[in-house]
């Protein structure tokens, strides 16, 4: 049962610690599943890589010859084999699926737009004009997320793969106060990120990029 | 085995035919699974509805007492019980999951931004300035999607729940030429939407809204 996670050999500093191979790495750590890294060039990407991942992104997963792309699909695939990430009772499974998709379709899309505004289009007039209403929209979403979490430690009651998804999405709020200004969400995020599985996954991603850093141009 | 799909009693014209209860309706039609509608007010929403759906959106699903929200989770839940929507072989399942998440996390987020620009923020200066680069970004995504589809009729080789997701996402391109200018994608979308299951689901959604249209103010 060999798991291989494909990711980039190296990425620029602002992306280190955030590349989405972090998600399957974390899932594997939670269930003690060893994996191998397969490292590809990020810029330019190998031409034939687009046949593995339609948009040339990472991660992709190979699990004993079965191929998956999209970090959500990969998380679900890994979780389904282990009750520690996916409850086996019908409502526990249903809640985990609901929150897994909520992370990817109800929160992360707005984080993508925030990344466009704050990173990729920074300095552009439209980005400056858009930013306040976008922060307001994300804030409203996060208020409701905090309401739904309530007094629970984790989204589906106990830690599941949905928390791997949501915590990595919430981290994308970056230097804004979107999470830090909401104590319940901030505590939730700390609770997720203080897990040994995240810490190991994060350190391993950084170590890979450090090992493969390009030679400084002198 | 009673399935109940919750949706709004009525929505304004521009949203009719696009409300996301269309997705589980379509899935139910494909597998011949009867369902009941539960209709709620859309504006304002019942206060206690937020405990069922964190953002007050539709659909939610009740399947014999098991509760789900997020149309992606609901689609997956319905599909898992029927091979017509979810292949049982390992790679077929993996491909279906990959494309299901691709629809929700790699294409729809950009359609959300398009809806903001073209509908909710129409007339705003930033929306006008943003629109060209957004169309370019979506176009690039769709070019790669067309490449990945290649000569296949459907994303995972044969029709699966991923096509319900992707076709409903592509419909969100609305009046733009994003899909219509790409013959392979346009043919793919037609292939999906011409299915009896979509036609019935779409007609049933429209019929519900027609039945519950508010009295005209005279």
Largest interface: A-B, 46 and 46 residues
Helix and strand element order of chain A: EHEEEHHHHHH
Shape of chain A: globular
SSE class of chain A: alpha+beta
Report the end-to-end length of chain A measured between terminal Cα atoms.
45 Å
Number of strands of chain A: 4
- The value of Rg of chain A in angstroms is 18 Å
Just give the CATH class of the largest domain in chain A. Mainly Alpha
Could you name the CATH topology of the largest domain in chain A?
Answer: Glutathione S-transferase Yfyf (Class Pi), Chain A, domain 2
Regarding quaternary structure, what we see is homodimer
Number of helices of chain A: 7
> What is the name of the CATH architecture of the largest domain in chain A?
Up-down Bundle
The proportion of residues in beta strands of chain A is 5-15%
Q: Helicity of chain A, in percent?
A: 40-55%
Spatial ordering of strands, largest sheet of chain A: 2-1-3-4
Largest sheet of chain A, in brief, is: 4 strands, mixed
Mean pLDDT of chain A: 97
Number of domains of chain A: 2
Unreliable segments of 5+ consecutive residues of chain A: none
